[in-house]
């Protein structure tokens, strides 16, 4: 199971830099709204206090009665705006309605001092109000009475003022926050640019290149990373060179004795006189040829896993050339080997490895297809880039065998000469070219092995 990829470094930096900014902006907006409500309430309280005192001055005691000099025009002015209505009530004694809006609620707490306004909250018709009450004494010394004047104002005004203040404050802050976020994003991209360049250099270079990766104008942390990568690449390149020398030495040390053994056996077969000796020499010759083929395949597989040097090449021309090389063997086996497809198809690939893959596929088709069959080498364009296929009209494979064909050392037939590595090499070469190898059955019978290459030039 492959590990799950986490957030990129750029996204993590953006998250840790912009998330606190968003939290602070939201918290600041909430505090600013509360402050705006508080200041708006203070303004309303001051206005209500002035209104209740002005209204109280319009109530004049006359003997043991009251003269309320509050004309109808003044009442209309107080109540003309339904969204900002100022309600009032005059009562004497307190709570006994005389004038105004008798729905104004009385304060829950007693008025402690006559002549001092008391502010409280109430609800009228389901709407919250801010109310001020002022008690005054009037009358003679022997018959003192208390007059209560109340003035209330809707809190919708307070909320509207708070919203306006918040809009005036937070909209510019939001614009500044967006600008700051863009600056932070640009700074992070600029700061991570050395890592992007380092990634491009690593993707474009080969592990056997000796020149170190440059990291000019990069932060010290990136310099340390580049130094570590250069050391690692140098170590890998050293091992690759050692392995390449070993493979070359092994190829020479193994092929030469096997070639000599095959030659000596062939000479012995010419000089042998008895059928039993000829039979034994034939088995030795077959085993030596199979060993030589196995050594060649093992070395090819090892080399294909080491390094792929991809350069622009004409895949169709390469396929036609390989087909011409194998035509004499196909004719000697009584088979028809042909080429079909594009006349020219440029790809990025390793010519030696692609030639080896095609040779393996043609060799398998010639080895396991009966005489008189037709083998077709086909080069076509595909959605991913290019496809390279070898088709035959032989017996093909059983469905249970299709999933096993790319396993190393698996053989679909016990005919002499094969070693079960050909298709493994083909698949490895396809993957080295960013593609894949697949095997398909043909109707009414036959087999098709396809290599897909991911890049065209």
Structure write-up:
It is a single chain. By secondary structure, the protein is α+β, with helices and mostly antiparallel strands. It folds into three domains: 10-162, Beta-Lactamase; 207-307; 308-453, Heat Shock Protein 90 (2-Layer Sandwich). The chain has nine helices and 14 strands. The longest helix is centred in the middle third of the chain and has 52 residues, at 220-271. It is rod-shaped, with a radius of gyration of 48 Å. The protein starts with 8 loop residues before the first helix and ends with a strand. The model has no long low-confidence stretch (mean pLDDT 77).
Shape: rod-shaped
The tally of helices reads 9
**Main pleated-sheet profile:** 5 strands, antiparallel
What is the rounded Rg? 48 Å
As laid out across the biggest beta sheet, the strand order is 4-3-7-6-5
Order of SSEs, N→C? HEEHEEEEEHHHEHEEHEEHHEE
Class from helix and strand fractions: alpha+beta
Estimate nothing, just give the exact number of structural domains.
Answer: 3
CATH topology descriptor of the largest domain: Beta-Lactamase
In short:
This is histidine kinase. By secondary structure, the chain is α+β, with helices and mostly antiparallel strands.
Helix-strand blueprint:
Blueprint: H1 9-57, E1 59-62, E2 65-68, H2 72-79, E3 86-91, E4 97-100, E5 118-124, E6 127-138, E7 145-154, H3 156-204, H4 220-271, H5 275-306, E8 311-314, H6 315-332, E9 336-341, E10 346-349, H7 351-368, E11 374-381, E12 386-392, H8 399-402, H9 422-432, E13 436-441, E14 447-453
Parallel strand pairs: 9-11
Antiparallel strand pairs: 1-2, 3-4, 3-7, 5-6, 6-7, 8-10, 11-12, 12-14, 13-14
Helix pairs in contact: 1-3, 4-5, 5-9, 6-7, 7-9
């Amino acid at each position: 199971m492959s590990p799950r990829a986490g957030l990129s470094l750029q996204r993590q930096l953006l998250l840790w830099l912009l998330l606190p900014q968003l939290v602070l902006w939201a918290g600041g907006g909430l505090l600013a709204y509360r402050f705006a409500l508080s200041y708006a309430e203070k303004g309303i309280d001051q206005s209500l206090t002035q209104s209740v005192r002005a209204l109280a001055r319009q109530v004049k005691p006359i003997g043991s009665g009251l003269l309320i000099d509050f004309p109808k025009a003044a009442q209309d002015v107080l109540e003309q705006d339904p969204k900002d209505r100022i309600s009032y009530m005059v009562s004497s004694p307190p709570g006994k309605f005389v004038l105004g809006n008798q729905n104004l609620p009385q304060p829950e707490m007693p008025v402690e001092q006559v002549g001092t306004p008391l502010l409280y909250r109430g609800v009228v018709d389901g709407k919250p109000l801010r109310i001020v009450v002022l008690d005054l004494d009037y009358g003679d010394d022997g018959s003192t009475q208390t007059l209560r004047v109340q003035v209330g104002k809707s809190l919708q005004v307070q909320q509207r003022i708070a919203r306006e203040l918040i809009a005036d404050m937070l909209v510019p802050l939001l614009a500044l926050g967006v600008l700051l976020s863009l600056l932070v994003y640009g700074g992070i991209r600029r700061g991570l640019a050395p890592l992007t360049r380092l990634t491009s250099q690593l993707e474009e270079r080969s592990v056997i290149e000796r020149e170190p990766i440059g990291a000019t104008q990069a932060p010290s942390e990136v310099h340390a990373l580049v130094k570590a990568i250069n050391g690692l690449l140098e170590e890998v390149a050293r091992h690759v060179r050692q392995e390449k020398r070993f493979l070359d030495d092994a190829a020479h040390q193994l092929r030469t004795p096997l070639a000599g053994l095959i030659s000596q056996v062939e000479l012995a077969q010419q000089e042998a006189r008895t059928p039993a000796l000829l039979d034994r020499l034939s088995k030795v010759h077959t085993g030596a040829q199979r060993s030589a083929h196995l050594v060649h395949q093992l070395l090819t597989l090892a080399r294909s896993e080491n390094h792929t040097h991809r350069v622009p090449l004409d895949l169709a021309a390469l396929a036609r050339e390989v087909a011409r090389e194998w035509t004499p063997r196909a004719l000697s086996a009584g088979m028809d080997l042909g080429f079909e497809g594009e006349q020219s198809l440029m790809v990025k690939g390793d010519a030696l490895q692609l030639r080896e893959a095609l040779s393996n596929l043609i060799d398998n088709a010639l080895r396991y297809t009966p005489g008189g069959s037709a083998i077709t080498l086909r080069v076509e364009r595909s959605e991913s880039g290019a496809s390279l296929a070898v088709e035959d009209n032989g017996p093909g494979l059983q469905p249970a065998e299709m999933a096993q064909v790319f396993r190393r050392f698996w053989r679909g037939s016990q005919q002499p000469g094969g070693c079960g590595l050909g298709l493994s090499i083909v698949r490895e070469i396809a993957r080295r070219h960013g593609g894949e190898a697949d095997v398909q059955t043909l109707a009414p019978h036959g087999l098709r092995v396809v290599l897909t290459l991911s890049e065209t030039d």
